Amino acid sequence: MSDARARMLDATLELIGEQGVGGVTNRAVAARAGVSPGSLSYHFPSQTELLREALMRFVSGEAERLEALADGSAELDPLAAAVQEIVEGADRRAVLAQMELYLQAGRDPELQAVAARAFAAYDGAARRMLEALGVADPEPLVPALIALVDGYELRRLVSGADAGPGAGRALVEGLAALVRAAA
Description:
By secondary structure, the chain is mainly alpha-helical. The chain has helices at residues 3-19, 26-33, 37-43, 47-71, 76-88, 92-107, 109-132, 142-159, 169-182.
C-alpha cells in the first residue's frame, strides 16, 4: 500500500472517530492526509469504497493485535493483563470510529461483508484465547466474549469514562467469570 493511500485511510478513521461518518468528506480527508482531493478520488472513487477500505485497514490491525494476544495467553492472568492493557491503551477516537463503521455497515449492504470480516477476526482470536484457557467447547462463548468487549467499550464511550490505569478492570472481571463458568 502506498504511503499516500495509507495516510488517506488513517485520516478517514481519525475523522470518523472525531466527527462520525458524516464528517468524512473528500475535502476533509484530503486535507488531513496532505493530498489533493483529486488524488483521493483517484484512489477511492466512492464514499463506500473509502469507508470499506478504512474498515478493512482497522480490522487488519486489530486482527493482528488480537492474534498476538491469543498466542500469548495460556492462562487467565496473562490473558487478563493483556485485555486490560488493550482497553487501557485504547484510543477513544479509534473506538468511536470502530463503532461508527459498524453502524454504517448496518445501513450499507456493501460494507456488511467487511464488518463480517471484522467479527470473524475477533471471533477467531476469542476462540483461540478460550481454547488456550482450556475451555472444552468455546463456540457458544465466542459471541458472548466479543459482545462483552464491545459492550464494555460502548458503555465506556457513552459514560465518558477515560482509558487509563484500571479502566479495563470490569471487563477483565467479566471475562474471568465467563471463562471460569465455561471451564
